[in-house]
Amino acid sequence: MNIEQLNNNHGIVDHIKFIEGAGGFPYIRVDNAKGSAIISIYAGQVLSFHPANEPHNLMFVSERAYYQPGKSIKGGTPVCWPWFGPDPEGKGRPAHGFVRNRFWEVMRTEASGNEEGKVTLGLRDSAETKAIWPHSFELLLEITVSDSLNMELITRSLNGDTFPVTQALHTYFKVGDIAQVVILGLEGTEYVDKTDKGHVKSQAGAVVIDKEVDRIYRNVQGEIVIEDAELDRRIRIKSKGSKTAVVWNPWAKISAEMGDLKDDDYKCFVCVETANADQDVVQVGPDSESRLVANYRIERNVS
């Protein structure tokens, strides 16, 4: 993708600029009075979000992340679609679908005064995608940058097609010290424990991370809040179109085994994913759409 052409077609002076990023990938920089963000057109992935006057990034991105076509970027907001987790049909297709390792198209950009910027990225079916997943679709990702970060993943069925979708915004949140993190809003919620043979359990109290955690929470109600005492902030997560939340941290052994994580990176992030997964399958009917929405806001003064 030509950076100059992208700026000519979609740049907005002082608000939205296209730049060359890591690995030569085209990035979009969004700036306004309330916040700033960096978005990779490859993978349709937000890699950075800073509300104005906030000293720390919302996002964690590994220093060892791969920036290579065909590889996923470890950090930010990977998009899992049209399936979450292993290939549901056991055909050997990649985990978490096929949109987090390809270039998206810039559909449009907008700026509302100096307080909000919006970028819409999109993908449509092609001969290549139909060889992987035989459906006619349009997938849009609307990213709004202001004092919060808002993401809407929109799935549209085309040509009278009908298909099931599981999906997630697999967001990596930066934390100061995982040992001082508490996750609120999931108390009493049933979850599938993927670290314990998929046994179904009930969340007793707030979620703390003191070992490998890989859980799919069912029938999630209301907001989820990450309390990060070390960085003296809360991350408030509001979602729509989702009954599922996934909480993941690889802990020490898996972090050390991953080539795109440093050994101690597990101390610096937690994934809390807005999802449709497990029993929460979305059926997209003929010429209709579904929306998965997540809004992330930082609040100061945890103590």
From TrEMBL:
Gene Ontology MF term list: carbohydrate binding; glucose-6-phosphate 1-epimerase activity
Q: Name one GO biological process term.
A: carbohydrate metabolic process
Top-level class of the enzyme under EC nomenclature: isomerase
Q: Coiled-coil ranges per the record?
A: none
Q: Which domain of life is it from?
A: Bacteria
Q: Which reaction does it catalyse?
A: alpha-D-glucose 6-phosphate = beta-D-glucose 6-phosphate
GO cellular component terms listed in the entry, alphabetical order: cytoplasm
Identify the SUPFAM superfamilies for this entry. Galactose mutarotase-like (SSF74650)
Q: Which InterPro entries match?
A: Aldose_1/G6P_1-epimerase, G6P_1-epimerase, Gal_mutarotase_sf_dom, GH-type_carb-bd
A Pfam family assignment:
Aldose_epim
> What are the positions of the active site?
170, 273
Q: What is its EC number?
A: 5.1.3.15
List UniProt keywords, sorted A-Z: Isomerase
Q: In which family does this protein belong, per the annotation? A: Belongs to the glucose-6-phosphate 1-epimerase family.
- Record PANTHER family: APOSPORY-ASSOCIATED PROTEIN C-RELATED, GLUCOSE-6-PHOSPHATE 1-EPIMERASE
Q: Could you identify this protein by its name?
A: Putative glucose-6-phosphate 1-epimerase
The organism is Nitrosovibrio tenuis
